[in-house]
Structure formats: C-alpha cells, structure tokens
Amino acid sequence: MKTASILPALVLAVALWSCGTKADKPAQQAAPEEAVVPVKLTRVETVVRAESVVASGLVSSAEEARLSFKIGGILNKTFVEEGQTVRKGQLLATLDLTEIAAQVQQAQLAAEKSDRDLARVKALYADTAATLEQVQNVTTGRNVAQQALTIARFNQSYAQVRATVDGTVTRKLVNEGELVNPGSPVYIVSGNRQNDWIVRVGVSDKDWARLKLGNRAVVTLDAYPGQTFTGTVSELAQAADPLNKLYEVEVRLNPNGAKLAPGLFAKVTLQPAQARSYAVVPVEAIVEGNGKEGFVYTLTDDRKHVRKVPVQIGFLDGSKVLLSNGLTGTAEVVSAGSAYLTEQSIVVLK
C-alpha cells in the first residue's frame, strides 16, 4: 500500500518539472541583436564650374541654298548633277513653258483689249455718249489687265532655277519630267568658301539658357581623328524645333587649312561663360544611380541611423561626382558601407 501511494506522487512531480522546463525556454533564449553596419563619412565639398555642353551635328556651309521654282509645273531640263561646281547666276533647271507661255499670251491679249475698250469709251465720253463713271470703270479694268500681264511675265522669268552662290551641288532632289510644286527644293547648293563652314547642333533648354553668342567651342571630326578644331557660337535659335524639342545652335568652324565638305560628322563641346555651383561627393557615395538621378545616405541627428536623399548628377570628374541638386545644407555623406544600408539600418562610424 505504501508503494502504491508513492508512485502517483512521483509521476505528478515529473510532469510538473517538465512543464516548468518548457515554460522557461523562451525566457532563456536571448533576442538576436540588430545588425550594425559600419560606415565611413566624407565631407561634401563645393566647386564652381562652367559645365561643358556636348552635342553632335553635321558640317555645312553658311551659304547653303535650297533652290526652287516660284511656280509649279513640269520639270523640262536639268543642267547639273550632284557634286558639280556651279557659279552664281548659272542656269540649273527650267520648267516646260507651254502652259506658262499661254498664260502670258492670255494676259497680253486681255491687256490689249482693255486698251481698245478705254480708247472707245473715251471717244464716247468726248461725244457725251458715255458717262464719267463708265470711263473710270474701263480705266480701272485696263489697269487690272496690265498688272495681270506683269504677274504673268514675272512668273515666266522665274520658270527657271539659277545658282545664288558660288558652290557645289550637294543634292539634286527631282528629275526631268516630274511635276514640281511651287517652293519645293530642286537643288541644294553649298558655298565653297574656305572659311565659311558651320556646324548646327541641338541642345536642351537648360543648356541653351547658359550659352551666349561668342562662346568658344572645340570640334572634332570623324574625318580627321586625333585632330581638334576651334569654333564660336554664331547663332542661337529663339524657338525649339517642334519635332525634337531641341534648340538649334550654330557654331562657326575654323578649318585651320583642312579640306572640309558638307555632311561631315562633328562632335562639338561648347564652353559656356555662365558658371554654376556643384556639390562634390565620392562616386562610392552614389547608390541606385540611373542616368542623371541617384541617391546618397546621410546620418540623422542621433548619428545612429541614416536617411536616403535623392540627388541630381551633373557629371563625373574622375573619382568624384558633381551634383547639381539635392544636397543643400548637407555637410557629410556616407562614402563607405552605403551599399549595405537601408533606411532602417543602425550604423556605427569606423
């Protein structure tokens, strides 16, 4: 009987010890410490520079002419081909004059009839058989007919295309027998004066605002690798191109004795006189860089946490990045360890 009473007590004690052990386990396990990221700070410097504007375009002549007929018609004859040299005033193309000559003859007959009508009415007026109003009306009709004849003869004289500059035919756009509309280019002629070469490039509105007439430019040509040319800004467009939204800048090129031709590909580096201030940080400080956009990390006031700050990248200068916006009033940025950071990270300074 004594043994039978001891066994239930022993089982109860073991069960209680087991439950107590399980309940104590969570209290005995220490919570894992939060990861601490070691970082290094770098002071933000400031520089003032006139950032270059880089663009590309094609060499052309400042005297480039797009020659066309004033009136439409059938192209009768062309006298030059692409690549030929032409002189100012040289005949390049003519229209079929059949219709134009008929219009001139029609205007001539109308003018002659108006002269006869005026003479007859004046005679009747002298005999008091016509009124002064009739004389005045016929006189007006005669003047209108004379002006119509002048227009017809003027159009007849412009039924041909002549070179307006000494140069080279760079494009021939139509062939004999084609119907030509008024004002549609037939030839493109570029002047061939040695010191009359330009490069036209397109720039953004922000770059256009920093440029002025007379700004210097450095030009490189694919045709002359390793050689550089100088130039100056000679024209600034006052409106953007409706297609590409860029502003055209004309750079007058100094050939420096080199042989140039229209169509040569050129890379232009413009040097604006207007400077601007940039914040300078190490390239390692930039995270999530995408074109002109990126982020940097800065310390919060407690010096234990970080804040992610968006910045705008101006350009690279070796191991440095010049920022055009985003770090106003910031003295230091994280330059080492930033790749491992999030805005929830706890940091410690190296």
How would you describe the overall organization of this protein?
The protein is of the alpha+beta class and 350 residues long. Among the domains are: 86 residues, conserved putative lor/sdh protein from methanococcus maripaludis s2 fold; 84 residues, Elongation Factor Tu (Ef-tu), domain 3; 61 residues, Helix Hairpins (Orthogonal Bundle). It is built from 4 helices and 23 strands. The strands form 5 sheets. The protein has a 6-stranded antiparallel sheet, with no helix packed on it. Strand 13 and strand 14 form a beta hairpin. Helix 2 packs antiparallel against helix 3. The radius of gyration is 42 Å and the shape is elongated. It starts with a helix and ends with a strand. The N terminus is likely disordered.
SSE blueprint and pairings:
Elements: H1 2-28, E1 36-43, E2 45-49, E3 53-61, E4 65-68, E5 73-78, E6 85-86, E7 91-95, H2 98-126, H3 132-157, E8 160-162, E9 167-172, E10 179-180, E11 185-191, E12 197-203, H4 205-210, E13 216-221, E14 228-236, E15 247-254, E16 265-271, E17 276-282, E18 287-290, E19 293-299, E20 306-317, E21 320-325, E22 332-336, E23 346-349
Helix pairs in contact: 2-3
Q: Identify the strand order in the major beta sheet.
A: 2-17-21-20-19-18
Give the SSE order as H and E letters: HEEEEEEEHHEEEEEHEEEEEEEEEEE
**What name does the CATH topology of the domain at 38-49 and 276-349 carry?**
conserved putative lor/sdh protein from methanococcus maripaludis s2 fold
**CATH top level assignment of the domain at 38-49 and 276-349:** Mainly Beta
**DSSP, total strands:** 23
Helix content, binned percent: 25-40%
Task: Work out the strand percent.
Answer: 35-45%
What is the annotated CATH architecture of the domain at 38-49 and 276-349?
Beta Barrel
Q: How large is the radius of gyration?
A: 42 Å
Distance between the termini: 74 Å
**Overall 3D shape:** elongated
Largest sheet: 6 strands, antiparallel
On the 0 to 100 scale, the average pLDDT is 83
Can you count the helices? Answer: 4
Would you identify the regions where 5 or more consecutive residues have pLDDT less than 50?
1-33
Q: What is the structural class?
A: alpha+beta
